[in-house]
Structure formats: structure tokens, C-alpha cells
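BUG: 3D viewer hangs when loading the predicted structure for this chain

Environment: internal workstation, default settings.
Expected: structure renders.
Actual: progress bar stalls at 90%.

Input used:
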Amino acid sequence: MPTRCEICCEIMIAILLPPLGVYFRHGCCSVEFIICLLLTILGYIPGIIYALYAIVFIDRDQYFDEYRRPLYAA
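C-alpha cells produced before the viewer hung:
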């Protein structure tokens, strides 16, 4: 579970560069990152809104298990 400081820093980064904030939280090979990247390309404001949603409301630990491990985690 991330601390309040981590979430606050990710939110500030997400306001400046939405995909980067989602990348720090969910990784680069996640659906959340790809959706945020596409929304940011289509429009900056939708990218920010989705990035804030992905950082604050989507709990990565809930969906993380051995069978769905990201590519970069060994």
C-alpha cells in the first residue's frame, strides 16, 4: 500500500505529465498506462482526469498475483 507522500507526488506528476504518473504507479506494460497515453495524445485534460482516477482509485495490489505478474518484475 503506497503512503500518502507517494500518492501526493504521483498526483503532482500526473498533472504535469499524465502517463508518467500512471507509469510510476502501474508500470509501462499495463492497460492503465496505455489508456492514459492514448487519452493524453487525444487530449491533455482527459489524460489528466484518467491519470488521477488510475492513481487514486485503482488499487494495483488487488489485481497483482503470481499469474498476472508484470514483465519487469522478477
